[in-house]
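Reviewer comment 2.1 asked that we show a complete input and output for one of the modelled complexes. We chose the NAP case, as it is the one discussed in the main text.
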Amino acid sequence: MKICIVGASGKLGKYMVQHALDRGYEVVGVCRERSVSKLDAFKGRIIIVPGATNDREVIKKAVAGCDGVLTVLVPWGSDHYSSGTAQAVLDYAKPGARLIFSCGWHITRDDKDVYPLSLKREEKIIRWLTRIVPFVDIDDQVEACRRIFASDTQWTVVRGSDLEEGESQGLPAWSRHVGDPILTSNLTRRVDYALFMVEALKNDTLIHVAPAIVGCRTPSALTHAAIH
Ligand SMILES: NC(=O)c1ccc[n+]([C@@H]2O[C@H](COP(=O)([O-])OP(=O)(O)OC[C@H]3O[C@@H](n4cnc5c(N)ncnc54)[C@H](OP(=O)(O)O)[C@@H]3O)[C@@H](O)[C@H]2O)c1
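Response of the prediction step:
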């Protein structure tokens, strides 16, 4: 299996690279030129295509021949970084390739999510701050996901809860809607978020689904497992 990881040099990206190598996959990583050294630990074991992830030529080259593409969707800046990245992946990944995208709980697939007040407050604050300094563009990440949901590719959008570092606890639990009791704990280890992304490549039941995830050892996941 040959896969591409778009945003490989970030925290989530590096964990995904490791999980993919552990599975014996051939890995092509895309990251900004200045971040290539962050992948030194994988030197000789992965191919790196340096460049902006919304550069269509960079993505075209990186995803060529890949059976799966894992994309870290980040809403940085104000020049449509997220939607540009998503569109390039949608346009250039080979037909039938599994496309897995990361984002947060704030993305909704069908408007049936019920958000905790803390999350609504957080989003309001970020939106207010970005009116002063446009360091992120949440609406562009929303637009990126709208395009993914509308595409006829084999997509999965994995919606992350709050994240923490720490040793793996195993594959996160998930649900289709934020607000479902299993998700109440709102915490996942980043290494396990990456695990979910990589495992999704081979899980066809997740095609055209936007799972919201939570750590499998969190109280809400354990309570739910005990009930069912
Ligand atoms: N952080 C959270 O609490 C949280 C919660 C839920 C979901 N998520 C989702 O998880 C995913 C990973 O997020 P993360 O917070 O854990 O970050 P991360 O894995 O460290 O990834 C950040 C990515 O953004 C890139 N980046 C940073 N600054 C940039 C800039 N100015 N222009 C372009 N690219 C830039 C980084 O590339 P370089 O290596 O080149 O800097 C890296 O690929 C995202 O999809 C996010 O929506 C995060």
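Residues 117-132 form the longest helix (16 residues). We note this here for comparison with the apo prediction described in Section 3.2.
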